[in-house]
C-alpha cells in the first residue's frame, strides 16, 4: 500500500505550488509541510509520516490487547478463587455429626430418646384403619403416668362464617377416665360445702354436683375461685351469670345451651358430664381436638368412644360446609406421635355395640 501511495505522491507539485489538499486544516495536524530550505520532498515526507502513523497505531493496539489480556487473567484468577471457595464450602466437615445432630429431620432433633424409639413403630405417611391405629397407639404409650388419648379432625370449614361454626357435645359410652368436678348455679342456694338450701340445690347435690350455689358462688368466682371443670346453670340464673363472661369465657367454662351447660334438667346434665359427656368445638384453623379416653382403656372401649366422636362430628356438620367435609383425621396419646387414619375406612367402620 505504501508503494501505491508513493507512486501517487510523485505527481504532486513542487513547494512553490502547494496543493490545496495538503493545506486542509484537518490534515495540518498530521502533515507538516516542508519549508523551501528543507531537503525532503513531498513523497519522502509522506512515507515517513505514514510509517510513524503505523508504528503509533501498532503500539496502541498492542497496549490495548495487553490490557485485555491482563483483565481476562484477573477475571480467570477470581473465578479460580471463587471455585476453590465453593468447593471448600461444599466439602463435608472432617468431624462427622453424631447423636441427634445427625438426624435428617430438624424437628426430631429436639425429641426425647423415648419419643424417637416409639416413633419407629409407625410409618409416617401410611394411613391406618381404626383397629390397627388404636392397637399401635396403646403400644406407643409407655410413660410413667396414664396418658390421655386424643382425636384431631381437620374439617373443610371456616369458623369465621356463622354457618360454618361447629360446637357440640358427645356422650362417650365408656367415659373419659377423668374425674369431673361439676359446679351448679341455681336459684335458692348458697355456697355451703355440706349443707344446701332450696329444692333445686338438693336435686343438684343428690345428682352428684360437687359445688352448688347461687349469688354467693357468683361472687366467689369473681374473686378468683375456679375449682371446677364444668359450670352448669339454670336458665333463670343466666342474667346474673352474664357478668362472669370475661372470667369464664377464655377458660371455656361459660355456660352455653349448645354445650348442654344451660338447662332446666340439672340432674340429667350432671349425670351426663359425670359419665363422660365431652364438649368440643372447631378452632380457628378448622380443626376439632377431642379427648376420647385413657391409654389404659381396653382397645374395644377406645374404638367405641372414638366412633361415637366421629358420628357426632358427622351428624353436627355445619349447614355452610361445602364439598369434602373430612380432610384428615389423626389419633395420638398425649405424649406420643400421631397416627393418620384412612378417612373412607373410618367413616365406613362399624364399631362394636357397647355393652
From TrEMBL:
This is Ribosomal protein. CDD domains: Ribosomal_L1 (cd00403). GO terms for cellular component: large ribosomal subunit. SUPFAM superfamilies: Ribosomal protein L1 (SSF56808). The keyword Ligase does not apply. It comes from Dendrobium chrysotoxum (Orchid). InterPro entries: Ribosom_uL1_bac-type, Ribosomal_uL1-like, Ribosomal_uL1/biogenesis, Ribosomal_uL1_3-a/b-sand, Ribosomal_uL1_CS. PROSITE patterns: RIBOSOMAL_L1. It comes from the Eukaryota. Keywords: Ribonucleoprotein, Ribosomal protein, RNA-binding, rRNA-binding.
Amino acid at each position: 500500500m505504501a508503494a501505491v501511495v508513493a507512486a501517487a505522491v510523485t505527481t504532486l507539485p513542487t513547494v512553490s505550488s502547494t496543493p490545496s489538499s495538503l493545506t486542509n486544516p484537518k490534515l495540518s495536524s498530521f502533515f507538516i509541510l516542508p519549508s523551501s530550505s528543507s531537503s525532503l520532498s513531498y513523497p519522502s515526507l509522506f512515507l515517513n509520516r505514514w510509517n510513524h502513523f503505523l508504528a503509533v497505531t501498532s503500539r496502541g493496539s498492542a497496549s490495548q490487547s495487553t490490557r485485555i489480556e491482563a483483565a481476562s487473567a484477573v477475571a480467570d484468577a477470581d473465578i479460580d478463587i471463587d471455585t476453590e471457595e465453593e468447593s471448600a464450602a461444599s466439602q463435608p466437615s472432617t468431624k462427622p455429626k453424631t447423636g441427634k445432630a445427625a438426624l435428617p429431620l430438624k424437628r426430631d432433633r429436639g425429641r426425647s430418646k423415648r419419643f424417637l424409639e416409639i416413633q419407629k413403630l409407625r410409618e409416617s405417611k401410611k394411613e391406618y384403619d381404626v383397629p390397627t391405629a388404636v392397637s399401635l397407639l396403646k403400644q406407643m404409650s409407655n410413660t410413667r403416668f396414664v396418658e390421655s388419648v386424643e382425636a384431631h379432625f381437620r374439617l373443610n370449614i371456616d369458623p369465621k362464617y356463622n354457618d360454618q361454626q361447629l360446637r357440640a357435645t358427645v356422650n362417650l359410652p365408656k367415659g373419659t377416665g377423668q374425674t369431673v368436678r361439676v359446679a351448679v348455679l341455681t336459684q335458692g342456694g348458697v355456697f355451703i360445702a355440706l349443707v344446701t338450701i332450696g329444692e333445686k340445690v338438693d336435686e343438684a347435690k343428690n345428682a352428684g354436683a360437687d359445688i352448688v350455689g347461687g349469688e354467693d358462688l357468683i361472687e366467689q368466682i369473681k374473686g378468683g375461685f375456679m375449682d371446677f371443670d364444668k359450670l352448669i346453670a339454670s336458665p333463670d340464673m343466666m342474667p346474673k351469670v352474664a357478668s362472669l363472661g370475661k372470667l369464664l369465657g377464655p377458660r371455656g367454662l361459660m355456660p352455653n345451651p349448645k354445650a348442654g351447660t344451660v338447662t332446666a334438667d340439672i340432674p340429667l346434665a350432671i349425670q351426663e358430664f359425670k359419665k363422660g359427656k365431652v364438649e368440643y368445638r372447631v378452632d380457628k384453623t378448622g380443626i376439632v381436638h377431642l379427648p376420647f379416653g385413657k391409654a389404659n382403656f381396653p382397645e374395644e372401649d377406645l374404638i367405641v368412644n372414638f366412633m361415637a366422636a366421629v358420628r357426632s362430628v358427622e351428624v353436627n356438620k355445619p349447614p355452610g360446609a361445602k364439598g369434602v367435609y373430612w380432610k384428615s383425621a389423626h389419633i395420638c396419646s398425649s405424649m406420643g406421635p400421631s397416627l393418620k387414619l384412612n378417612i373412607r375406612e373410618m367413616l365406613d367402620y362399624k364399631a362394636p355395640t357397647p355393652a
